[in-house]
Amino acid sequence: MKKILVQTGGRRDSTSLYRCMGPLSHLAKTYREKIQIDLPAENEAIAWERLADVDMIYLHRPTQPSGLMCMKMARLLNIPVWADYDDWLFDVPEWNPAASRFKDQALRHVIATVLAGADLVTVSTEALRERILPVNSNTHCVPNAYRSDIFQYREEKSKISRKDIYFWRGSQCHDGDLLSVAPAFRSLSRPVHFWGAPSQELLKQMQPQAFVLMPGMDPLRYFMEIYRVAPKVFLVPLEGCFFNRCKSNIAWQEAIHAGALCVAPDMPEWHHPGIVNYDPNNSESFLEAAERAMALSHAEHSDLVSEAYEYMLSRFDIAGASSQRLALVNDVLGSSEKRNRVDMFDDAIGEKALERLLA
User: pTM above 0.90?
Assistant: First the structure.
């Protein structure tokens, strides 16, 4: 039995469902005799005596000095560290509210040091893996997995009638994405159901009858709700920048789960069945793709979604993702050669790693 201690600043949010407590809890349940997950209480201070009792530490999106300190203690205790990231945090767009935060050199130094010193790094996309490989050769792409085990209400061929509506979900961190195709949103033939916190600037440009606002909610309830709302088309506008090229296609998985088609940019991460691509930053292309998806007959739409659902289960289901994670964990725990020998107490390590990451 191997015990993995989890350090996360967002145990209940959607990223935890996709990449932290969601997959780790499945890993522990599936391999009960091999893996145990230890999730400390919120705000619990983690010191050496707690770490000494575990076999591995999982850092979920570590950006704070506390994560780096935990990593240094682990190195002194000869305990391997597994770090997971799902965003390229060194090039956050200026319009993103978090941009100024991730320009902080101390924070960048923390992230670079963690990436260079971790025994195992997992990321959500190949674009991220390629950027991190120069500072850590044990970096692997483990895509967000679809939790078919907990979404058992999702029928293979949904009997819920499709509604001729568009659906968008997100927060203010996507304001620039929405505004990159604002003229298209003003011209859509069907109303848009906005879930979360859409751009207020965009809403001011749209007619009141052209949209419906939906409140945010727990991620598990959200999956149930989008299935019940039954939109015909998910809209996933993304500005054509490198930060977005590193983003994962979880919105596509949500769309197929909901029984909808997905309109998304023509980027490598978005080339899957059930997606209608558009040219990034091109409102005319976005509008054409959205209206083309909306115009499909019920039979055409149903066939495309069914094909995409089967594809998603075959490529992105949680069972395969858990097997992949277990293999990576065993690889690190089973061989001293897989351990990272970087000197975690040398400040120059972070500076050198940052230079290579930004090159």
Answer: yes
